[in-house]
Amino acid sequence: MADVVRELDGANAGGQFLRTALTLAVLEHEPVRITNVRGDRSTPGLRHQHLAVLETLAELASADVSGAELGAETVEFSPGRARLAGGDYAVDIGTAGSVALLFDAVLPLATELESPLSLTATGGTDVAWSPPLDYFRRVKLPLLRQFGLAAACEWSRRGFYPDGGGRATLRLAPSTLEPIELTDRTRPTAIRVHSTEAAALSDRNVAHRQAEGALERLDARDCELVERSETTAASDSPGSAVVLVLRIDDGERDSEESGGALAGFGALGERGVPAERVGENAADAANRFLDGTAPVDRHMADQLLVFLSIAGGRVRVPAATDHVETSCALLESFGVPVEKRPENDAVVIAVDPVAPEADADT
Length: 362
What we know:
By secondary structure, the protein is an alpha/beta fold. Among the domains are: 82 residues, 2-Layer Sandwich (Translation Initiation Factor IF3), CATH 3.30.110; 102 residues, Dihydrodipicolinate Reductase, domain 2, CATH 3.30.360.20. α5 links the parallel β10 and β11. The radius of gyration is 20 Å and the shape is globular. The two termini are 29 Å apart. InterPro entries: RNA3'-term_phos_cycl_insert, RNA3'_phos_cyclase_dom, RNA3'_phos_cyclase_dom_sf, RNA3'_term_phos_cyc, RNA3'_term_phos_cyc_type_1, RNA3'P_cycl/enolpyr_Trfase_a/b, RPTC_insert. Belongs to the RNA 3'-terminal cyclase family. Type 1 subfamily. One of its GO terms (cellular component) is cytoplasm. GO terms for molecular function: ATP binding; RNA-3'-phosphate cyclase activity.
């Protein structure tokens, strides 16, 4: 293990702190030592999904690792490769751990790739405390593609809590990002409701009922409303999810490859909660967003910060949430200058990317 450059303390943070720290270590080509991993959780230390992220990034970056075991509360990670070779990889999280959160950690590494990369992950595609897969595919990826990220995601099986067993593939190509400027709200022209159910729930028409609950609760504001309900191949766990996608395109395109996504809001089916109420929960979050002026939703605010550290730019977010504050402090610990300032009912975050250090011999 190389000499540790960055000492990071996760005592007041959760899994996102760990994932972002490891991604930044790869991007900045710096070893890190993270103590008190997930220190503010009732069960601190590495769980299956965090271990999967650690092992995946270690493989991609040829990193030396210490602490790669379940329950570990201290992790040392030293990247061994300045550029990533790409190739085909497969990861089995082993539980209903989030596939989307694993992909989130890998996504920024497109800027370090020498050749295309394919990562197939088995785990939870639609589970609590993480973005549903449709949010990742239909909101986050289209937004980032507008700034130069070459990425796509496809799935072959959904995986719900508690068994997981879903399967999805992330495909990345070498990318150069443009500065991310997202300060002005553009009026959405369409709201698409993507509702999914496991086959075990199809006799109760859960997906359609979720979508109907969302459509009835939405304050559409002259937006076109489109329902997309589907019964999906899934693992043995019955489950459902609904995602509302606000779009700024002409409302005609429906592929996750198309641009124009503005924001997204999801909810997961729960035992004892009527399907209609699940859709209403997602619609309530969308209505609150439409009442504000920020161009991205509160969850995307945190997820964009790593990309700001790469390309620079400005993003106006609904609020400086705890996740946003923690991520900003983490960027600053890597020497990335971050500026936050209130603006009307939102907060503007501006980041200047750190220029590469000059070679000592020049």
